[in-house]
Each structure stands twice: as structure tokens, then as C-alpha cells.
Write a structure and sequence with these properties.
Blueprint lengths: L1 H13 L38 E3 L5 E3 L8 E5 L2 E16 L6 E17 L3 E9 L10 E10 L5 E6 L5 E12 L2 E8 L27 H4 L8 E8 L2 E8 L18 E11 L2 E10 L11 E14 L2 E14 L2 E15 L2 E12 L9 E17 L2 E13 L5 H4 L4 E11 L1
Antiparallel strand pairs: 1-2, 3-4, 4-5, 4-21, 5-6, 6-9, 7-8, 9-10, 10-11, 11-12, 12-13, 13-14, 14-15, 15-16, 16-17, 17-18, 18-19, 19-20, 20-21
Length: about 425
């Protein structure tokens, strides 16, 4: 019963009909194709963004209709400064014999500074910080989650690792030409050109306090200690290539790591309308896991992100596939997620995932597992640019017969959270 309800909610949220003629729907006024894409002020222009897209994390695109990442914008001389942030106080309880409970703080705080360079170029500096290292190295309980380590010796299983204090320290220069635009991005840390934007920045699921279990298939590279990306934009297409450090962050969450840029990725993005962004990407990742340094991975991803309105209400969604090819094994992950605002200050969000993994079984057996969740949050505007929200999330995992003893079948889990947001 619960499984059917969660699956139905996820599918209903994630797969509305995206028909031609959306631009004629009420409230769907889109920018003209020849308009420059402003970052919140007519005085600072982002040259590598066509009018129909908004900036996502790193160099990724979001549909322009989503509004992108909202924040506080302040002009000072030739510079535009922006800040936005989200902090969640979460009470987490995971069921079954592998479950646990914990209260923790998650979120991020971002700052950026942008200015024009002459008439055709622009410079953007960004910093993003996280409070998550303060929750401890073991992170928080999350059934079926895998990846990274708390002590440099044993892998984290059924726990989501905390993100590093420094999630992004980056600079980007872009320049407009008659045929389009070109850009150069560098970060320590930063985000290579792979996969959709990071989960905490996607409008389809940014209201959820829970990381997806497919994180290490789709967007685990969003905190990479050393990345350089070069790209071009022609019309509504973007092609970009990155060199980056393949090793994932270690258990010391407060430092900045260095190392050779030994890995490569490439991403092709297409934004045919202000309501839709598609991307396909590939990565050759050298030695991502400190616990298995001889292991290299080839990764692939494809995603569709949409932002529309249904009966005048915002509706955001994503469907994505990711693959990790390692030691001759091809491990796939599928994610569907969506959010809808049924009334002012209310947001309903859902996610359904299916992941193929060998990390849950001590013997390394590959299993397909699944996880579905459904959540709701109510926000209150308490001051200019400040919101407080109260939310809850419930979910269930699904395991095959070979994992039933470890997980007791399909246990439930839940989270209650208080959110403070700068918007």
C-alpha cells in the first residue's frame, strides 16, 4: 500500500505531459530568443547563457522558466554581488536492522560577484560553503546510500557522507562572439562538466533534505578539488570539456585538497525552449575511491530537466540515467524527481530511484535496489529575503531476496525538518 502510494506520487509528479504550445499557457511568459540573459540586473550580462536558460551549479544549465537559483542581488559600482542559502535542521529516523537515527544540520551558503569585461565579456567569482562537516565524519543515516569513508579505512554504507566545508571556490570568464560565446571555468573545489547540476540546486528536488542514492552515478563530481572547464555556446547548444582531479574528497571535511588533474569529462547540453534542458555527458575518472586506488571508472549520464506551469502553478521535474563502468561491470542508476507548488508557500516533492550496486553486500554481489520518497514543506516569509519552513518526508526502500536478511525487506524511514532560507 505504502509502496504503491509512493510510486504513484513520484510518477504523477515527474511525468506530466510536456506538450507543444506551453508558451501559450498562463504565466509562461518567456524571454525573447535574442535577449541577453541577465543575472538579476540589466547591467551585468552572462555571455555564455542564451536567453532561455538559467545558471545551475558549476557550469550546468537549468530551464529559464525555473527562475534558476534565486538570491539577494546588490549592485556596487561595476560589480553585482549575490548571496543565497539554505539551512536545514533535520530529525532523521531510518527503519529496519540497518537503520539508525540522528539530528543534524545540512545546507549551503553561496556568494558570487560578477562584472562585465568591456562590452562582450564577463567575470564571475563564486564561493559556496556547507555546515555539514559539523555533523561529524560519519554523516547521517540513509538506507542504501554508499560512497566515501569516515575514517579512510572502511566505506560508508547506509549513511550519507557530509559535504566539505568548501563546496566551491571558482572563477569563470566568458566572452561573446558573433557566432555565440566561449567560457573558461576553474575551481578549487569546483564542478566538472558531467551530469545534471548537483541535487541541492535542482528545482525538482532542492526542497528535500535527503541526498539521492544515485548521487555517485550522476553528480558526485560536484565537489572536485581541482577542475578546469572550457566550453562554447552556439545558439541553444553548449559543448564543454573538463580536466579535473578524479579522487573524491577524503574524510577531512574542513581542508582544501590538491592533486593532478588526471581525469576528463565532456558534456553536451541543449535548451530548445525556456522550459526544457537536456544533457548527455561522459567522464573518464581516475582512481576516484581512496579505499580502492587502482579502480578507474568510466561514467555516462543523460538527463531531461523541465520547468512548466500546470493550472498556473510551478512544476519542476527531472528524469536521469547514469552508468558507472568499472572493472568490466556496468552499474546503472535511474532517477525521477519532481516538485509542485499546489498553493502559495506550499511545496510537494517526490523522488523514485533504482540503482544497480555491488557495495551493499560484503561479498560484492551486484543487486538492483530502489528507494522512493514523498515530502511536503510549508514556508513563511518572516522578513525581507528570509523564509522559515517546516517540512516532513517519508520513504521506503526496496531490496531483492539476497538482501532481505540485512534490511528486513522494505523498511520505512522518515525525516522532519526546519528550514531557514535566504531567497
Amino acid at each position: 500500500m505504502i509502496r504503491a502510494a509512493l510510486m504513484t506520487a513520484a510518477l504523477l509528479l515527474a511525468t506530466p505531459a510536456v506538450a507543444e504550445g506551453m508558451e501559450d499557457m498562463p504565466g509562461m511568459d518567456a524571454p525573447a530568443a535574442d535577449e541577453p540573459m541577465a543575472t538579476g540586473s540589466d547591467e551585468v550580462v552572462v555571455a555564455d547563457q542564451p536567453a532561455q536558460v538559467a545558471a545551475g551549479s558549476g557550469t550546468s544549465w537549468l530551464p529559464g522558466a525555473s527562475g534558476g537559483m534565486a538570491g539577494i542581488h546588490i549592485m556596487s559600482g561595476e560589480w553585482m554581488f549575490m548571496t543565497h542559502g539554505t539551512f536545514n535542521l533535520v530529525a532523521d529516523k531510518q527503519g529496519g536492522p540497518r537503520g539508525d537515527e540522528k539530528t543534524f544540520v545540512s545546507g549551503m551558503l553561496m556568494f558570487s560577484a560578477s562584472r562585465n569585461i568591456g562590452d562582450q565579456g564577463g567575470l564571475t567569482l563564486r564561493a559556496m560553503l556547507s555546515p555539514e562537516p559539523f555533523m561529524g565524519r560519519t554523516g547521517y543515516p540513509s538506507l542504501l546510500a554508499t560512497g566515501e569513508s569516515a575514517d579512510g579505512v572502511t566505506p560508508l554504507i547506509d549513511r550519507q557522507h557530509p559535504h566539505d566545508l568548501f563546496m566551491e571556490l571558482s572563477a569563470e570568464v566568458d566572452w561573446r562572439f558573433s557566432w555565440g560565446a566561449a567560457f573558461l571555468y576553474a575551481g578549487l573545489p569546483g564542478e566538472p562538466a558531467f551530469g545534471p547540476g548537483a541535487f541541492m540546486h535542482r528545482p525538482s528536488i532542492m526542497d528535500s533534505p535527503e541526498a539521492p542514492i544515485g548521487h555517485h552515478w550522476l553528480d558526485s563530481t560536484h565537489i572536485t578539488f581541482g577542475v578546469v572547464t572550457a566550453g562554447i555556446v552556439v545558439g541553444d547548444w553548449k559543448l564543454e570539456v573538463s580536466r579535473f582531479r578524479g579522487r573524491e574528497p577524503d574524510e577531512n571535511r574542513f581542508d582544501i585538497e590538491t592533486g593532478a588533474l588526471d581525469s576528463t569529462s565532456a558534456r553536451l547540453s541543449w535548451a530548445p525552449t525556456p522550459y526544457l534542458v537536456l544533457q548527455a555527458s561522459w567522464a573518464d575518472v581516475k582512481s576516484p575511491e581512496a579505499l580502492d586506488p587502482a579502480l578507474n571508472q568510466t561514467r555516462y549520464s543523460f538527463s531531461v530537466i523541465y520547468s512548466i506551469q500546470v493550472f498556473g502553478r510551478p512544476w519542476n521535474g527531472m528524469a536521469a540515467w547514469g552508468r558507472r563502468d568499472e572493472d568490466g561491470h556496468q552499474l546503472d542508476a535511474f532517477t525521477m524527481e519532481a516538485s509542485v507548488s499546489p498553493a502559495d508557500n506550499w511545496t510537494l516533492f517526490a523522488r523514485a530511484e533504482r540503482v544497480e550496486t555491488s557495495e551493499l553486500d560484503p561479498g560484492g554481489t551486484v543487486y538492483w535496489v530502489g528507494k522512493h520518497s514523498l515530502g511536503l514543506i510549508r514556508d513563511w516569509q518572516v522578513a525581507d529575503h528570509w523564509q522559515i519552513g517546516l517540512g516532513l518526508l517519508g520513504g521506503q526502500i526496496f531490496t531483492p531476496a539476497g538482501l532481505h536478511v540485512r534490511y528486513d525487506g522494505a523498511p520505512l524511514y522518515g525525516m522532519v525538518f526546519l528550514r531557514v532560507r535566504i531567497n
